[in-house]
Design goal:
324 residues, mainly beta, Jelly Rolls, 2 domains, 6-stranded antiparallel beta sheet, 7 helices, globular
């Protein structure tokens, strides 16, 4: 191994009860069946480690590259804190049915219960049916006891906040916020590296064997943040060329609208991840990555200071880095 370049990884397709075919039809992911729900684009989750699919490192795992390149790949502060574990997970999600209503624990609770990180995440809506919606948070103030009464009385939906959704909507979901993705949505998800989910309500669905999935209400109630923010949806200017659309201790996300040749300067000390939401772009100077197309997720090593791209028409990128 000698030099680093922008890296693309083999997608890891996850079949789900609520999945469909949009990952293949819209984002050109491998078609493994009619219920493909998630494409894990960049993952350091044990058992689901991403593998490179471009350039001379094809076939190498993300973990192998971090072990070899350390801070040159992920950034010195990221490597010093996380070692060979990549701290973020990037997905595309195709929901043809409502997902289960769920919540994720914060770092403190996840460490105590599972010796794991919590799960803060954000969603960017790529495509949405005309009547699509999702659930995020509560529509009125309730406490833990009132919430459990709603669970017992089968009245949970009456206190949950449902949002109408359209393409390019953004939602930030901190750990502890109750949520679900609704049917008819294609979403890009950025999250902490954690697969801990407390399932609260699953619409009485059964799997192929007629079994309902397990619920975790006793665990969930102590993980839920019952506070209500001023707005659940992130407001931003759709016409802006570059705009901050999400910031947390775990990741910072910009949206870039690109309609002319552009050089992105990566003015931070971590690696950068680009998710192509719309269009395609030619990439200069890197023969290992001649272009980025809709549905591609690219890991830009921290040692690469800039990237020059020429779009074919209008293109949209999400640009994500890990703050100090």
């Amino acid at each position: 191994m000698e030099h680093l370049y922008p890296l693309i990884f083999e997608p890891i397709i996850k079949e789900k009860l609520w999945g469909g075919t949009s990952l293949h039809e819209v984002l050109a992911k491998p078609h493994t069946g009619d219920y493909d729900g998630e494409s894990w684009e960049l993952s350091g989750v044990p058992g689901n480690i991403s593998v490179v699919r471009n350039g001379p490192y094809t076939g190498k795992s993300l973990t192998e590259l971090i072990e070899h390149f350390k801070g040159d790949l992920v950034g010195e502060h990221v490597y010093n804190k996380h070692g060979n574990m990549f701290p973020l997970l990037f997905k595309f999600i195709d929901a043809q049915q409502d997902l289960s209503i769920q919540v994720h624990p914060n770092d403190e609770l996840a460490h105590k219960r599972h010796n794991s990180f919590g799960k803060t995440e954000m969603w960017y809506v790529i495509d949405a049916d005309p009547d699509a919606s999702l659930i995020v948070g509560f529509n009125k103030q309730v406490d833990a006891r009132q919430y459990m009464d709603c669970i017992q009385d089968n009245k949970l939906m009456s206190v949950l906040n449902r949002e109408k959704v359209q393409p390019h909507d953004v939602f930030f979901i901190p750990a502890g916020r109750i949520h679900t993705i609704g049917k008819g949505l294609l979403i890009a998800e950025i999250q902490q590296t954690s697969d801990i989910t407390y399932r609260i309500h699953d619409f009485d669905r059964v799997d192929a064997n007629g079994n309902k999935r397990e619920l975790h209400n006793d665990l969930a109630v102590k993980a839920i943040d019952f506070s209500i923010p001023d707005s659940y949806k992130t407001s931003y200017d759709l016409q802006a060329g570059e705009q901050l659309i999400g910031a947390s201790d775990y990741f910072v996300t910009k949206r870039r609208f690109i309609n002319e040749p552009t050089t992105i300067e990566f003015g931070h000390s971590s690696c950068t991840v680009l998710m192509c939401i719309e269009g395609s772009l030619e990439v200069s100077l890197f023969e290992e990555l001649p272009a980025i197309s809709k549905g591609d997720t690219v890991l830009i090593p921290s040692c690469i200071e800039e990237l020059t791209m020429t779009p074919e028409g209008n293109s949209i990128l999400l640009e994500i880095h890990i703050p100090d």
